[in-house]
Amino acid sequence: MTVPSALRAHPLLVSIAFWFAIVSSVLIGVSSLRYLLGDPRLAGEGMQATVIANGWIFATHAGASAAALIVGGFQFLGSVRQRWPRLHRWTGRFYVLGCVVGAGAALWIAPDAASGRVATFGFSVLAAVWLYTTLTAWRLAMARDFAAHRRWMIRSFALTFGAVTLRLQILAFLPFGLMYNDVAPFLAYSAWIPNLLAVELAFLLAAGGAMHRPRHGTAA
């Protein structure tokens, strides 16, 4: 047994993690649609100033990002791609549009005085990398390089999923009496860098497993 195969997760655990990502993304995405009402009272205490300062731009960011969250995970269902390829392509376009609009609006609202320059930089980098990975995935799909397209789309969704990990981390800080503005400089990096690192590690393990896979009936 090679090291990559030894570290490979049990299929049941992979399935649980996959469906947790889909369900939590849909729940957070649907919940985020409340920002479309434009009422800052619907936001958390630490976010109200940002909602008021950015108005419709914040609503645009929230709505577009929510749309990407809701449909993004379903793009990785092989049964959907195989049975309904046109649905996969159209929802993929919808996802890309949501990411592009959401990232563009995020770059606009990232300079948030309430959370400071460190948070502004982190969220700005997130928006830029999110935009780059999504457009790269889309370009590769247009070039019909579907293997590379899938890898870059996984990177894109890992960044989209940062909306979920950010909220989970906020909940983890609440018992310590820490609010969003207190930990925003940390969340601006912790919400997405671990996601991206986990994806890259999975790619490395998969590549290592492929290199050590027995060929032509030879023993492992």
Short description:
This protein has 220 residues and is an all-alpha fold. The protein has helices at 3-7, 11-32, 48-72, 78-83, 85-109, 116-142, 146-160, 162-173, 180-190, 193-212. The protein is built from ten helices and no strands.
Q: Name the overall outline.
A: globular
The low-confidence runs, each spanning 5 or more residues with pLDDT under 50, are 1-7
Distance between the termini: 7 Å
Strand content: under 5%
Order of helices and strands: HHHHHHHHHH
Rg for CA atoms: 19 Å
Total beta strand runs: 0
Oligomer: single chain
Q: What portion of residues is helical?
A: over 70%
Number of helices: 10
Q: Name the structural class.
A: mainly alpha
Please characterize this protein's 3D structure.
The chain has 220 residues and is mainly alpha-helical. Helix content is 76%, strand content 0%. The chain contains ten helices and no strands. The N terminus is likely disordered.
Overview features:
single chain; 220 residues; mainly alpha; 10 helices; globular; disordered N terminus
Summarize the helices and strands and which ones pair or pack.
Elements: H1 3-7, H2 11-32, H3 48-72, H4 78-83, H5 85-109, H6 116-142, H7 146-160, H8 162-173, H9 180-190, H10 193-212
